[in-house]
Amino acid sequence: MRNLRRTALLTVPAAVAGLLLLTACGSDGKPAATATPAASAPAASTPAASAPATDKAATDKAALKGSLAAGNTAKFGAIVLDGLDYTLYRFDKDTANPSASNCNGDCAAKWPPVPVNAQGTIKGIDAKLVGSVTRADGTKQLTLGGWPLYRFAGDKAPGETNGQGVGGTWFIAAPDGKKAAAGTGTGGNGY
Hints:
Helix content is about 20%, strand content about 20%. The longest helix is centred in the first third of the chain and has 23 residues, at about 1-25.
């Protein structure tokens, strides 16, 4: 039994080192690009044993904000939600190729950027379409189909879509990164 424990302890660090090496290099052995697709599964993490329960709850909530899920509405069809089921938006003044965010300062207060989170998850969305962009303040923001993603401060509850069409430049994001199409949904999530 003692030898099994020792083997397991040696295997875990070796596996972690292997994953780090694979993450740092692309498939051709060269360093990976800075805008990388997000993983389709949550990253493994071990909370510190001494962390209070409230810190874990805050961490879990932050991880959910960096998550993406496909939803469906009767009014707007297929849409993108964060892990807390808040609607996500894209901004016509941003660019998708190359990805660039043009919402900063007061704009970012009204339209909070969706942060990149290693613990975030992706459900019902092609992980190949998910990436990130570095914002003017140096933080990382999730992108979908190259378009930076945002929440709207005017959405006070999950499933609200109050940001649709604001200023003729803000639109609900569809799971392919394009604008959600009005009137094509089934209302499957009850929004």
